[in-house]
Amino acid sequence: MSKIYAITNQKGGVGKTTTCVNLAASLVATKKRVLLVDLDPQGNATMGSGIDKNSLKESVYDVLLGEAALLDVIQRSESGGYDVLPANGDLTAAEVQLLDMDRKEQRLKLALKDVADKWDYVLIDCPPSLNMLTVNALTAARGVIIPMQCEYYALEGLSALVETINQITAVLNPGLVIEGILRTMHDPRNSLTVDVSAQLTEYFGDKLYRTCIPRNVRLAEAPSFGQPALSYDAQSKGAIAYLALAGEMLRRNEASLKATEHSAV
Ligand code: ADP
Ligand code: MG
């Protein structure tokens, strides 16, 4: 069964898109089949995967509105080796149009329902707000990955996000869990980083990934070449950190699978 993760944080600029693109490429490097769903009208994940958002015939917008089938809209990221359900500015209209639709929170879930098993992992890149698009991501997902920048206001807004996740769990998607909290743009020399890390450990315990993503200029450069860091500069600290994250995720999944099998015996 494919694992569907929403990569979300209503703050902009915390590394959601960078995480989505680079985690997708890293999972491909471990021979997993991956679909990246771009759910941000900015289309940064689409562009960062080497797909031109300005020349899309159809996009995730048409899929959400039920006007195109998901499999007809996906494109291959040649640089990343994964499939992409691309987005562009058209998606801005969907935020409003969805409000009048039947099962408005479940449009993405329904679109993925019969086809998600084509992939081992589906990663959804969310917009920087808790709007209907993010609600669609959280309703379709099994787990939430929250990238956080360990800076002064990092924890502000986190309670609103956790509250939204709890509401979705109560009403629309009882199986949804917080999969992991990821520290991005990490700088261990900064004492504030250390303080925020300590608070995150206290609040989230072992949900906090041990892997930290360092601040690394290659991660910032790669998108303008339409590539994940792994194809732009495989030796870079950023590319290596995202490989480590993929490894940590896979180990966690194997461990929880074993625990489930064990309890079933
Ligand atoms: P979000 O999707 O949450 O808005 P992005 O992934 O687009 O955030 O990241 C915001 C900016 O920071 C982008 O310009 C990106 O290239 C840069 N960035 C993200 N992660 C890192 C990192 N670890 N090191 C350096 N720059 C980064
Ligand atoms: Mg983004």
Automatic annotation (TrEMBL):
It comes from the Bacteria. InterPro entries: AAA_dom (IPR025669), DNA_Partitioning_ATPase (IPR050678), P-loop_NTPase (IPR027417). It holds the Pfam family AAA_31. To B.subtilis soj. It comes from Simiduia agarivorans (strain DSM 21679 / JCM 13881 / BCRC 17597 / SA1). Residues 3-177 form the AAA domain. This is Chromosome partitioning protein Soj.
